[in-house]
Each structure stands twice: as C-alpha cells, then as structure tokens.
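Please decode residue identities from the backbone states below.
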C-alpha cells in the first residue's frame, strides 16, 4: 500500500450537532466566524459550515441523525487566540456561556477557558503566543 496515496494531511471539519442551525450560525458569527457553506440536502436538512476568519478547518453545524437525542458534549475543539483576556471579555460581552475566568495553570499549560454554544456543547479557547 502506498503511504503517499492514502496519506491524511489536514483536518477539514468537525461536526457539531445542532437542532437550531440558524441560532448556532448567529452565535458563531458573533464570535467572528464566517459562514462559508449553507447547502440544502434531503428531507429539508441543511449542511452548514462556519470557519474562523483565518482558519482552514471549520465546524459543520448539522442536524443530529433522525431519532437521535442531542446531548451536549465536550467537543474537544480547541480554538486559538493571541490574546486570551480579550477573547474571554468578548465572549462575555456577547452573552456567551463562558467560564467565569481564564484558567492559568502555569507552564507548560497555556492560559485557556471554556465556553458553551447554544446547544450546550463545550469548546476551549487557548492562547497560542
């Protein structure tokens, strides 16, 4: 088997299930994300992708599979910022469900905080510089 032909070389999307896609899009746009895809598909569903303005990996805001309960989860998604305090303040100012303060555990762990999207899914913001 050729390693070149089957090589996986980047992360494209993570899928976060949501019942209320328009509300989720509005939330992510307030965070500074941009909607790059909004395509209808079978049975009245829509495939929606949002991306950070300088990012190439996005979040697909897709409806859960029919008959599946939507349970909020810790997504494992880590978003990066060069100013953790400004990012934290911004999320608080738009009314996001965000941790009360930035977590500062000390080296080698960078400053970070968690927030919840409108469905209750948790995402992390980490300072990268």
């Amino acid at each position: 088997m050729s390693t070149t032909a089957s090589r996986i070389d980047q992360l494209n999307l993570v899928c976060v299930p949501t019942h209320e896609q328009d509300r989720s899009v509005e939330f992510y746009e307030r965070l500074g994300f941009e909607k790059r895809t909004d395509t209808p598909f079978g049975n009245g569903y829509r495939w929606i992708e949002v991306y950070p303005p300088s990012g190439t990996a996005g979040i697909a805001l897709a409806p859960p599979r029919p008959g599946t309960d939507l349970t909020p989860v810790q997504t494992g998604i880590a978003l990066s910022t060069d100013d953790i305090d400004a990012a934290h303040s911004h999320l608080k100012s738009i009314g996001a469900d965000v941790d009360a303060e930035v977590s500062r555990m000390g080296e080698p762990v960078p400053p970070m905080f968690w927030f919840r999207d409108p469905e209750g899914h948790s995402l992390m913001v980490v300072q990268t510089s």
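Observation: The chain has one domain: 13-127.
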